Every structure is written in structure tokens, then in C-alpha cells.
From TrEMBL:
Superkingdom as given in the UniProt entry: Bacteria
Gene3D superfamilies: Homeodomain-like (1.10.10.60), Jelly Rolls (2.60.120.10)
Domain HTH araC/xylS-type: 149-231
Taxonomic lineage of the native organism: Bacteria, Pseudomonadati, Pseudomonadota, Alphaproteobacteria, Rhodospirillales
Protein name: Cupin domain
GO molecular function: DNA-binding transcription factor activity; sequence-specific DNA binding
Pfam families, sorted: Cupin_2 (PF07883), HTH_18 (PF12833)
Keyword tags: DNA-binding, Transcription, Transcription regulation
Organism in which the protein naturally occurs: Azospirillum brasilense
Length: 231
């Protein structure tokens, strides 16, 4: 028999300490391919071990530990031997003091044995940067040419297409076409959060059809567009 599938869920509560979205996962096979987010990701583990490859380095967290993945940073998730239970907080880039927030989550979890939504929002609010409203993720600062037309971007840089692609991959961790696909998926994620119809989202973000979006979306985020939109 195969491994039981992972179960991902997403919620988009309002007024929650700068939290854009809350994700939870429970399962054995929590592997996801290389992707990135427009938000900072704070992952806090409740059971099992969460394993990521971030910028080429293996990063692990066990119960009561957390991982901060800045916006725009490509990463992938690995599965382990035991079931994982964790929460992901997605917050505006640069809005929170991530290490301190993770430490506060750990203290509360060790003291009480649980983490509810009021706890998450209170801790997030307590660790907001008072003088910052967030910064743009690295992906938003690059301009669109890197994925709209690799050949044109290479020409502007005075490089061959192959040389430009190698340089891009070395700098960003993924080739230009994969970066572009992830940008479109992140745009689809924003539109789905806003309640846009899935077929319209697929068309607006350059996917062939709803099925094409669904396959790519589930591969990247572990959940179908329909389930994500309903969160």
C-alpha cells in the first residue's frame, strides 16, 4: 500500500496580527517541489519533523521548533518517516521579527500544549515591526522580463540564452521558466483568495484551462484550487 496522502488546509481570517493566511498540514508525504511565496512563511511544528531544502541547505524542525522562509526564496519540502503536524503562518514580507515570533510560539506551546488562533494572532501582533509595513519580496523587484521572455532578457544582459539561464538559476535556485510558472501560481493564489472563479483565474494567469491550473497548483501547494478557494 502507498503512503497516506497529506492533508493541507488554508484559512484567510481577518484582523489577525498581520497574518495573510494560515495553513495547516497533517500527513506523512508532505513533499512539495521547489516553489516560493509572495509572503514570509513561518512554519511551526507540532508533531513529527518538517524538512526543507532552502537555498541548497537542509533545514529541519521538530516539535516545538520553527522555520522562517523569507518571501521570494525558492525552497522545497521533503517527507520523513513519521507523520507531520504543523502550522504555516503567511505574513507580509518583513512585517514580523520572525526568530522572536517563533521563539514565542515555542514558549507558549511548551507551556500550554496547544496553539489556537487567538494565540497565533496575539503572538504575531506582539512581534510586528512597529516602524515597518513590510517590504516587497525579491521576486517582485526583478521585473517581468526574466520569465516573460528569456531570450529578450538575455539580449538585454548581453548574454546567450543558455548563459543567462545558468546565471539566473545560480542566483535564484530555479531556472527562469520555473520561476515564471511559480509567479503565475502565486498570482492565481491571490485571485483565488479574492473569490475569483477558477476558470477565470486560469485564463487570467496564462494557463491553458482549469485542469492545467489545477495540476500545477496542487503540485506546488498540495491542495486543489477549489479547496484552496473555499478556505
Amino acid at each position: 500500500m502507498g503512503r497516506p496522502p497529506q492533508v493541507w488546509d488554508y484559512w484567510r481570517p481577518t484582523g489577525g496580527g498581520g497574518i495573510v493566511e494560515l495553513g495547516t498540514v497533517r500527513g506523512l508525504d508532505v513533499a512539495l517541489p521547489v516553489h516560493f511565496h509572495r509572503e514570509d512563511q513561518l512554519t511551526f511544528v507540532l508533531a513529527g519533523r518538517r524538512r526543507f531544502v532552502i537555498a541548497g541547505d537542509l533545514c529541519e524542525a521538530g516539535p516545538g521548533e520553527g522555520v522562517h522562509i523569507p518571501a521570494g526564496l525558492p525552497h522545497r519540502s521533503l517527507c520523513g518517516a513519521d507523520e507531520v503536524v504543523c502550522v504555516n503562518l503567511y505574513t507580509r514580507p518583513g512585517l514580523h521579527a520572525a526568530p522572536e515570533a517563533i521563539a514565542a510560539l515555542a514558549r507558549h506551546w511548551r507551556r500550554t500544549g496547544g496553539l489556537g488562533w487567538p494565540d497565533l494572532t496575539r503572538i504575531a501582533e506582539e512581534h510586528r515591526h512597529s516602524l515597518r509595513t513590510g517590504v516587497e519580496p525579491a521576486s517582485a523587484l526583478m521585473g517581468g522580463e526574466a520569465w516573460d521572455s528569456v531570450g529578450e532578457a538575455a539580449r538585454r544582459a548581453g548574454m546567450s540564452r543558455e548563459g543567462y539561464s545558468r546565471r539566473f538559476r545560480k542566483h535564484h535556485g530555479v531556472p527562469p521558466h520555473a520561476f515564471g510558472l511559480q509567479e503565475r501560481l502565486n498570482e492565481a493564489r491571490l485571485l483565488l483568495r479574492a473569490g475569483e472563479p477558477i476558470a477565470a483565474v486560469a485564463a487570467d494567469t496564462g494557463f491553458t484551462d482549469q485542469s492545467h491550473l489545477g495540476r500545477c497548483f496542487r503540485r506546488a501547494f498540495g491542495v486543489t484550487p477549489g479547496r484552496y478557494r473555499a478556505g
